[in-house]
């Protein structure tokens, strides 16, 4: 038996690649805890297993160029350092990043680099980990980028679909296959740290109660596949009012989504991208055009993504 | 056919009775929006349809005697007034209340009176309403008692089980049949208004994020029937810290529940009753004794209820 196993064993490759897709963080009503993937844009990582016990970044190309090349300062580099340290690996990784998601777009660009790098590196381990087991290292990487340990983009990238991401647990929430997201990204950079600063200060309990009710309605609507519940709940009364002024044309873009049948619309992640949820692909497509048109009226060109809410997890290859 | 129908039609009774059971409001992580019924204690209402277009309270007996007899000032009376007004009824109601739930106990006593009265009166309508349709009138009644329009006790009493109650919607959440609640009521009155006053002031966003994550974990755990998720989420980090000092022995009572296998334990409604959720009836029964013992150590006798989390709706008869 032992011989047989050896006969069929394939030498582990010393190189692997993975792609992680864009995501809508927060989903309006789940600040820092809820997110879902959106196919159509993503970051790729090529990772090489190297003998030296270090993590180094060979190069970064794509839509973002001015990222730190020092591994400790780079979100993907920091995630691999955390992985190496936790598993006490005797080897290292060399990382090449291909950025497909703009930074400061609110589409989870830093998380995608983290997850792509980890999913690729995981293929090079002698005993690869589960996607859930990669989550803590992804959180370590994300903290370097955003200054905050939150997994609302990481969870969906690791598992796919709509995911509840707490500090130490990922829970995938079912979503009807036909529900689609329109995600529109204006060419305007809003730094995550600036968007976070807008949230400083204290909050009223009444707003929390309203937001909790909305979160619960959306979760119940997803589990039951009832758009009416999501339509009632998908409204951010807590965070959106503080961040909306940072996004040119936000009110008009949101209204364009609602006018075209959105169950709800709000800021994707820290913004400035705006998303809407729709009951079918056609509505989402039409709405995305109207949303882009509203951004144009505010003076900004934009990119559009229309894809199922129940989007794909990061994939190897 | 018409004759046949008339032959078999039963004259509508001019009197009906209903019972609404105690409930655990808030359930720790769903302040003002989540609750579930607990069989074993309840308020009963006898309602008589009268020709005069008024609502009057004939008498109140049971465990609470010092309640307003003026209909406008009584929670159940106000609910019936609201119902009469909305439906523009040409007749009135005479109400007799039998209180089985102590006021100021955190077990939904005012809500139970409201719901029992409405469910009984509904039987006397020429075209009875659905339970959901009674909800707005119940909210009107509850507002008289608590000064706040919240339905976390009303929803479960109307529908049964664990219910999400927003301003205008009730959603029943599935709960495994074997999960049990231990609800322990110390003989100590904590007025709802005083418990609400403890919540004044502002809140940190971080606490809200943690509480939202807990709420989402509990909801996902209920939908999936996974106790591990509820065990992780059933912890109130927002409201409990402010109210716990108002309840003698709270920390010890909660610890007793956790020591006996509670998935989580917190304050029922506005307190001082304390509840725990358990995976089976035996654990809940044993825990309830330990919880009562801890209240005794703090100087208070108590009553115990042990019943399924998926408790019964108010019933006619």
UniProtKB/TrEMBL annotation, chains A, B:
Keywords: Amino-acid biosynthesis, ATP-binding, Cytoplasm, Kinase, Nucleotide-binding, Threonine biosynthesis, Transferase. It catalyses: L-homoserine + ATP = O-phospho-L-homoserine + ADP + H(+). Its EC number is 2.7.1.39. It is an enzyme of class 2 (transferase). InterPro entries: GHMP_kinase_C_dom, GHMP_kinase_C_sf, GHMP_kinase_N_dom, Homoserine_kinase, Ribosomal_Su5_D2-typ_SF, Ribsml_uS5_D2-typ_fold_subgr. Residues 222-296 form the GHMP kinase C-terminal domain. One of its GO terms (molecular function) is homoserine kinase activity. Residues 76-161 form the GHMP kinase N-terminal domain. Catalyzes the ATP-dependent phosphorylation of L-homoserine to L-homoserine phosphate. Belongs to the GHMP kinase family. Homoserine kinase subfamily. This is Homoserine kinase.
């Amino acid at each position: 038996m032992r011989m047989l196993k050896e006969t069929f064993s394939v030498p582990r490759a010393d190189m692997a690649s993975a792609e992680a897709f864009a995501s809508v963080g927060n989903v309006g009503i789940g600040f820092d805890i809820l997110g879902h993937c959106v196919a159509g844009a993503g970051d790729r990582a090529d990772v090489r297993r190297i003998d030296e016990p270090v993590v180094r970044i060979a190069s970064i190309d794509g839509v973002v160029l001015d990222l730190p090349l020092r591994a400790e300062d780079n979100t993907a580099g920091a995630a691999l350092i955390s992985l190496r340290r936790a598993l006490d690996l005797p080897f290292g990784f060399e990382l090449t990043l291909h950025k497909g998601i703009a930074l400061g777009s609110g589409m989870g660009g830093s998380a995608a680099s983290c997850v792509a790098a980890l999913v690729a590196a995981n293929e090079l381990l002698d005993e690869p980990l589960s996607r859930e087991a990669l989550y803590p290292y992804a959180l370590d990487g994300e903290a370097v980028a955003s200054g905050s340990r939150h997994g609302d983009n990481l969870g969906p990238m690791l598992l796919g679909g709509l995911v509840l991401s707490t500090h130490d647990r990922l829970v995938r929430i079912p979503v009807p296959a036909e529900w689609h997201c329109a995600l529109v990204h204006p060419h305007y950079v809003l730094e995550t740290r600036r968007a976070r600063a807008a949230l400083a200060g204290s909050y009223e309990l009444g707003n929390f109660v309203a937001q909790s009710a909305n979160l619960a309605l959306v979760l119940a609507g997803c589990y039951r596949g009832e758009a009416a519940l999501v339509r009632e709940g998908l409204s951010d009364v807590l965070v959106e009012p503080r961040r909306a002024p940072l996004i040119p044309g936000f009110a008009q873009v949101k209204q364009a989504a609602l006018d075209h049948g959105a169950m709800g619309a709000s800021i994707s992640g820290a913004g400035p991208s705006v998303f809407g949820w729709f009951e079918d692909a056609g509505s989402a497509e039409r709405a995305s055009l109207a949303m882009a048109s509203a951004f144009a009226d505010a003076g900004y060109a934009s990119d559009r993504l229309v894809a199922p809410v129940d989007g794909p997890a990061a994939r190897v290859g």
